[in-house]
Design goal:
single chain, about 140 residues, mainly alpha, 10k-s Protein, Hypothetical Protein A, Chain A, 6 helices, about 0% strand, rod-shaped
Length: about 140
C-alpha cells in the first residue's frame, strides 16, 4: 500500500509541475521595415533605382545632382557619375592619380552648371566623358 500511495503522490506532483509549465514559441528577431522613401539603403527597394536612371539627359542629371531637397535623386546622380567615371578611367581619362574625386566634382559642377540648350538634351554620360577627357587627358591622347 505504501508503494501505491508513493506512486500516486509522485504522479500528482508530476502532474502539478507539468500543468504549471508554460509553453512558449520562440520569436526570431526581425528588422523593422524601412520607410518607402528611405535613402539609408537605396537598393533595398528596386523602384528607387531603375532602368530609367541609365539613359539620363544632361539636364535631368544636373537637376538631380544639384537638388537641395531630394537626397535620393542626388544619390542616384552620384552613382551615375561614379559608374561613368569608373567605366572610362584609363581609357578616356587618366584616372584618380591625376584627378582627385573632389576636383572631379568641382570641375564637373561647372560643366553642368553652364550647359547650353543643345547640351542639355545630350546624354549626361557624354558630357561627363567629354569633361573628364578634357580635365585629365592621358599623355599621348588627342583632345577632341
Amino acid at each position: 500500500m505504501k508503494k501505491i500511495n508513493l506512486m500516486i503522490a509522485s504522479g500528482l506532483l508530476m502532474f502539478s509541475m507539468l500543468s504549471a509549465a508554460e509553453t512558449r514559441t520562440y520569436q526570431y528577431p526581425q528588422a523593422n521595415a524601412l520607410p518607402e522613401d528611405s535613402t539609408t539603403n537605396l537598393l533595398r527597394d528596386p523602384a528607387l533605382l531603375n532602368g530609367y536612371n541609365v539613359n539620363m539627359s544632361a539636364k535631368r542629371f544636373a537637376d538631380a545632382w544639384f537638388s537641395k531637397t531630394n537626397e535620393r535623386e542626388r544619390i542616384k546622380a552620384d552613382m551615375y557619375l561614379l559608374g561613368v567615371a569608373d567605366a572610362t578611367e584609363g581609357s578616356v581619362w587618366c584616372g584618380y592619380n591625376r584627378l582627385l574625386p573632389s576636383s572631379m566634382h568641382e570641375n564637373l559642377y561647372a560643366y553642368f552648371e553652364n550647359l547650353s540648350a543643345v547640351k542639355e538634351n545630350q546624354r549626361a554620360s557624354k558630357i561627363i566623358i567629354d569633361a573628364l577627357a578634357e580635365l585629365a587627358p592621358c599623355k599621348g591622347t588627342v583632345k577632341k
